């Protein structure tokens, strides 16, 4: 599912809301998650999962084409850990 499909589905399930308002709501939620992660905060949505930022240390990598060693800088990457309810639903347990 992509963002536009999510907005469409929420609009269909909430006919009392305009689609442009649903779009603003979805965008606001995503922006808040992004901003919190940019600050280094953890975002937890009970039953769904938790978004956090993990630090990857600098390392020496290898260019797959040439085999040449390449220095890879330290970086921060987004990380998602699924919640118990989500895992259970995916495995047909709930």
Automatic annotation (TrEMBL):
Matches recorded under InterPro entries: Hist_DNA-bd (IPR000119), Histone-like_DNA-bd_CS (IPR020816), IHF-like_DNA-bd_dom_sf (IPR010992), IHF_beta (IPR005685)
Keyword Transcription regulation recorded: yes
GO MF terms, alphabetically ordered: DNA binding; structural constituent of chromatin
Pfam families the record matches: Bac_DNA_binding (PF00216)
Any one GO CC term of the record: cytosol
This protein's UniProt keywords: DNA recombination, DNA-binding, Transcription, Transcription regulation, Translation regulation
SUPFAM superfamilies in the cross-refs: IHF-like DNA-binding proteins
Keyword Cell membrane applies: no
BP GO annotations: DNA recombination; regulation of DNA-templated transcription; regulation of translation
Assembly and binders: Heterodimer of an alpha and a beta chain.
Entry's family note: Belongs to the bacterial histone-like protein family.
Job description of the protein: This protein is one of the two subunits of integration host factor, a specific DNA-binding protein that functions in genetic recombination as well as in transcriptional and translational control.
Name of this chain's protein: Integration host factor subunit beta
Gene it is expressed from: ihfB
């Amino acid at each position: 599912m992509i963002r536009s499909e999510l907005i469409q589905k929420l609009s269909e399930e909430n006919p009392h809301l305009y689609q442009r308002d649903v779009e603003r709501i979805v965008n606001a939620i995503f922006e808040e998650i992004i901003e919190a992660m940019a600050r280094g905060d953890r975002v937890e949505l009970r039953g769904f999962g938790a978004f956090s930022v993990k630090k990857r240390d600098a390392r020496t990598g290898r260019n797959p084409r040439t085999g040449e060693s390449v220095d890879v800088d330290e970086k921060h990457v987004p990380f998602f850990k699924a919640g118990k309810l989500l895992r259970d639903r995916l495995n047909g347990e709930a």
